[in-house]
Amino acid sequence: MTAPQGSEFWLCYKPFAECDVPVTLVNRGRAAVLKDTAQRAREAGFARVRVFSTEDIDGLTVERTASRQLIGSIVAAAARESAGPVCYAGSGMPAMMVDDWAAVLRTIEAGVATTNRMFSCDWIGVPHGRLLTAVRGQRADNRFAQLVRDQPDITMQSFPRSAKSLLDLDTPADLVVLKTAMRAGSLVLGDALEAELAGQRELDEQVRRAIRVFDTMTRPTKQLFVSGRVSGADWAQLDRDTSCRVRVLSEERGLRTRREPAQSLLGALYREAGPDQFVEALSSMGDAMIWDTRPFLAHIGCEVTRADRFAADLGFWTDIESRALRELVIALHDMPVLLGGHSLVSGGLLAAIDAAWTRRESLG
Description:
By secondary structure, the chain is α/β, with parallel strands linked by helices. The protein has 15 helices and 11 strands. The longest helix is centred in the first third of the chain and has 24 residues, at 21-44. The chain is globular, with a radius of gyration of 20 Å. The mean pLDDT is 94.
C-alpha cells in the first residue's frame, strides 16, 4: 500500500509505576500491544509511526519522554510540528486490525475526524495534526475527542462500534477478556500480545471464571447482571445478541471527566445493607455478573491504590491492603463475577459476546 505523504500514527507509553504482579502483567501486555499496533499502523499505510515512551522498548524506535510530562502536553507539542493527518492511539489497541486502521486513515485523509468514543476516547484520528494542540495540559486522553470536536469547522464521526474498536487494555480484567477471546478464537490479536498472554499463567483461574460468566450469555434460562459505565449502544447489543435475560445497571458514565462526586446505586446498597447482605443481594440478581467496580468504589469513598484495584480484578485478595475491598473480594470468591474497569463493560462486553458464541459453536 502506498503511504500518503505526511500521515502519522502516534503512540504514547508510560508504564504504571507499581511493581506488584497484577500491575506488571498489565505493563507487559500494554508494551506488547504497542508493538503490534505500531506494526499494523505501518501496514495500514501510515507514512510515519512515532512512539513516545518513558522507557526503551525492544524492537521500536522511541522518542523518550519524562515521567512527569502530561500526556496532553506531549501530544500538543508534537501537534505543533505536524503537517498532515494524524491518528493518536494511546498505547495501542489490542484487537484493531490493519484494515481498521486503514479505514481510519481514509477517513482523516478525506477531511473528517473520527474516534472510537466521543466522551471517553481511547484513540482519535484528525485530518490535520495541529488540531491536537487543543489537548495541551490534559492528564489523561479521555477528553481528547471532545476538545477536538469543540474547535471551529470540525466534522467528526464515530468509528463503527465493535469489540475491536472499543476494547482497550487498562486493567488485568482486559487481559482476562483478551486471553479468553484468544482461546475461543473470536479475536485476532497481534503476535507480540499472543505470545505475552500465552505466558501469563497468573490469568488462568480468572479465564476459567470468565468462561463461566460468558457462557451465561448463550443460555436462555440464565440471567446476566452487568453494572458500571455501560453505554446505551452496548446495552442494546447485549440485549440483541445474547440468549439470556439481561439486567443492566448503568451509572456514572464519564466518571473520569466529571467534577461531581460519584453516585452509585450499588454503593448506596452496600452502605445500607452492609457487606454480607450486599453480596447476598448481588447473588440474587443474576446467575453471573460483569462489574465495572470504579463507580462503586468512588461512591463508598474507598480510595484504593491501583495495585489494590488490579489485585481485586484478578481475585488476589491476599495482596489487597484495603480492608473493605479485601473483604468484598473474599465474599465474591465463589461467585461467577468478573471485576474490572470501564473497558470491561464496553469493548470487553462486546468481546465477551463474540467469545461466548464462538465457544458455543465450537462445542456443538
